[in-house]
Amino acid sequence: MFGLTPSWLPFLGDTAAPKESTVLTYEQVEELGRELDDLRARTVARLGDEDREYIYRIIKAQRGFEVAGRALMYVPFLPPVWLAGVGALSVSKILDNMEIGHNVMHGQYDWMREQGLNSRVFEWDTVCPADQWKHSHNYMHHTYTNIIDMDRDIGYGILRMDEGQRWRPYYLGNPVYAFLLMVFFEWGVMLHDLEADNIVKGKRKWSDLKPLLKGQVRKSGRQVLKDYIVFPVLSGPFFLTTLIGNASANIVRNLWAYSIIFCGHFPSGVQTFTVEETREETRGQWYLRQMIGSANISGSPLFHIMSGNLSHQIEHHLFPDLPAHRYPEMAPQVEALCYKYGLPYNTGGFFKQIGSVWGKIFRLAVPPFMVKSQATPGVIVERRPAAA
Where does the sequence pass through the membrane (predicted)? Predict the structure, then answer.
């Protein structure tokens, strides 16, 4: 694994940089941070009616698709109509999860001071309680992005997604675990904050889980009641087809959310870091870690909306609390900064990125001696100037 070899560690002396690695001075990294701060400030200054109207349109569309989907599933004797209902409900759940729920709970619309779009009280249409997701994602992942043994999103506690994770025979099942996580992704997200792997290792007590489990049972119970009991019962003689349709829409949402998220975090070229490398990070160094620890997916405007604009994962990691629909206009400026400082800007089409992800899942399942390392040349930052 190549990662950031930062200057706030003892410098490696005369050790040569890995081939094709980028070498930046401490001052360059801090200047990069200032330029990104300026980009953020310019974007914040422009927030207003355009952003308000955008999120209202998305919410209106999401609700429209949900009503249409549930209504069309009352016509199961016409399979094309029923399938259209499943598709519409799937779109509704994807929008609720990606472009509304994920982004609202990041605080992207808190500035509007609207109760229904306030990150502190918002709940989404999925089994994971919002408060638990905000801890595991907003805090743990976005603070410790791609730091091994700190960012639990690296493998979600069940997968080997980086060469820096020590191989064990358990990981021979990597592809199977990944497939199951993809199909049942909302449940995996719900269980994520329990840190089951740390329970097994004895690093966490069962007693620590009681409040989390109560919240999960309460939230998942409501979701199961709504999708698998109430709406199927309301459809009367079409109970079974409505049940199947609701389950199908949830699975479609799971497959899509998993694929978009994994494309932004695990394709080839994305770099990981150690705790030592990131100790006493400056703002510029934090920005740098986000830039080279993420990847984008190219696509159409509709594709970006359906991905919650997480197709701009680099920009999201840099500015997680800015309205995500602003990322497409910020992306060319971020890419220009990467070019200016000789940094990679990892982007590619969906099939390229997801193919790379699944290739990594299979490759990291086998013992390291059986496969060739695909470590990515990293970034070396020169020593921090001594204090005067």
Answer: 71-91, 176-194, 228-249
Amino acid found at 249 = A
Residue 345 has pLDDT above 90, yes or no: yes
Contact 150, 328 (CB under 8 A): no
Whether the CB-CB separation of 361 and 178 falls below 8 Å is answered with yes
Each residue's pLDDT tens digit, 184-227: 999 999 999 888 777 777 777 777 788 899 999 999 999 999 99
Query: Could you tell me which residues are beta bridge partners of residue 108?
Result: none
Class of residue 309 by CB neighbours under 10 A (exposed 0-12, middle 13-18, buried 19+): buried
Please, which residues have CB within 8 angstroms of residue 52's CB and are 6 or more apart in sequence? 112
Contact 116, 242 (CB under 8 A): no
For residue 57 the two structure tokens come to 């349109």
With respect to residue 51, please indicate whether it lies within any of the assigned structural domains. Answer: yes
3-state secondary structure of 23: strand
Q: Is 338 a member of any domain?
A: yes
Give the count of domains, the chain: 1
Neighbours of 208 (CB within 10 A): 12
3-state secondary structure of 152: coil
Facing residues of 63 across strands?
none
| Residue 270, SS3 per DSSP | coil
Are 33 and 284 within 8 A, CB to CB? yes
In the 8-state DSSP scheme, what is residue 273? B
Q: Are 299 and 350 in contact (CB under 8 A)?
A: yes
- DSSP 8-class letter at 369: G
Judge whether 346 and 294 are in contact, CB under 8 Å. Answer: yes
Given a cut of 60, is residue 10 above it in pLDDT?
no
Burial degree of 387 (CB within 10 A; 0-12, 13-18, 19+) = exposed
Tokens of 83: 């399938």
d(CA 54, CA 62): 12
What's the CA gap between 101 and 219, in Å, rounded?
A: 15
Q: How far apart are CA 186 and CA 174, in angstroms?
A: 19
In a domain, 387, yes or no: no
CA separation for the pair 252, 89 (Å, rounded): 10
Range of the domain at 194: 4-381
pTM as predicted: 0.91
